[in-house]
Specification:
Radius of gyration: 19 Å
CATH class: Alpha Beta
Number of helices: 10
Strand order of the largest sheet: 1-2-3-4-5-6-8
Number of strands: 9
Order of helices and strands: HEHEHEHEHHEHEEHHEEH
Largest sheet: 7 strands, parallel
CATH architecture: Alpha-Beta Barrel
Shape: globular
Structural class: alpha/beta
């Protein structure tokens, strides 16, 4: 029997709902503070939103129509029965609270087979009135708020032009947890400025903070980004598959086994991906990670020892 080496979020969802739940991505028509001039204009150095937005998630369509199209396809091709709406592109809490309420409730009421909602956002875009709305939504459905951290290294956050701090993430997570809302953290391995030590520190930080789940993936170079310019000028070198697998395993070893793992890699459409080539085959990446964990006879949380929860005023450096 194959040994379970990390805590799968997909397995949790299947057990929680009694069957697989399929995400239906939607575009709520939002923007981002590092794109609208509030904190910047060009976005993060690696971000091309079109590279991770599914075809049905088009902002010129209503939320209801996006969901309907996505569900119809999933029912035909996946034989799916239960769905979760995923507000995915841009920053999905970045707007007036009444507008957010209208969009969230439109999504929840779009189809009777919807059993949950995932909302992707930034830690610096969660004012108190929005958190109160999320608390309200959380009482009506299975809610997960996906917060982009990317790294717990403050210097790297500046390099990649994130426009928020580690402290922002700490405060947002603690506020959401206080309301009983599940927090899923996004982390990127291979960012310029980060080292092996930073991947370990990020895993320990999230463990001590007590997030519900985490997604990790390698840094992709995609078209029409500042990172692409750096790559073509020789200012950035992507990780090799072997390096990524090594760092991903170390991340898992230092991640508390109380945290669910929602993703271990990621991919971009061929028309957008510039590098690294090995990112085109996610199954090969997953196999590499799993094989390395078996060879090392290691598992999630093996090297993590719980110490303390970070207070809002504390920043990991």
């Amino acid at each position: 029997m194959t040994k379970i080496r990390y805590k799968s979020f997909n397995t949790f969802l299947r057990e929680y709902f009694g069957e697989k739940v399929y995400k239906i991505s939607v575009d709520g028509g939002f923007t981002c503070p590092v794109r609208d001039g509030t904190k910047g204009w060009r976005g993060c150095i690696f971000c091309n939103v079109k590279s991770f937005t599914p075809p049905n998630a088009e902002r010129w369509k209503s939320i209801k129509d996006q969901i309907k199209e996505g569900i119809e396809k999933a029912r035909v091709y996946k034989k799916a029965k239960k769905f979760a709406v995923y507000f995915q592109p841009y920053t999905n809490t970045y707007g007036e609270v009444e507008k957010l309420r209208e969009l969230y409730y439109e999504a929840l009421g779009a189809d009777e087979s919807i059993v949950g909602m995932f909302i992707g956002t930034r830690p610096d875009c969660l004012p108190d009135d929005v958190i109160e709305l999320l608390e309200e939504i959380n009482k009506k459905t299975f809610l997960v708020v996906e917060l982009g951290l990317q790294t717990a290294n403050p210097r790297t956050l500046e390099i990649i032009q994130r426009g928020h701090t580690v402290e922002d993430f700490t405060e947002a997570t603690l506020k959401l947890k206080e309301k009983g809302i599940r927090v899923l953290a996004h982390v990127i391995i291979g960012l310029p400025g980060d080292s092996e030590e930073d991947y370990i520190k990020t895993a320990e930080y999230l463990s001590e903070l007590g997030v519900f789940a985490v997604k990790i993936h390698p840094l992709h170079v995609v078209r029409f980004t500042l990172l692409e310019v750096w790559y073509r000028e020789g200012k950035y070198t992507p990780l090799t598959l072997e390096e990524y697998a090594k760092y991903a395993v170390e991340f898992l070893e230092h991640l508390s086994d109380s945290i669910y793992v929602a993703r271990l890699t990621g991919e971009a459409p061929d028309k957008f991906l510039v590098a690294p080539e090995w990112c085109r085959n996610k199954f090969n990446v997953l196999n590499k990670i799993n094989k390395l964990m078996e060879e090392l006879n290691t598992f999630q949380g093996k090297k993590f020892s719980e110490r303390k929860i970070y207070a809002p005023s504390q920043v990991l450096v």
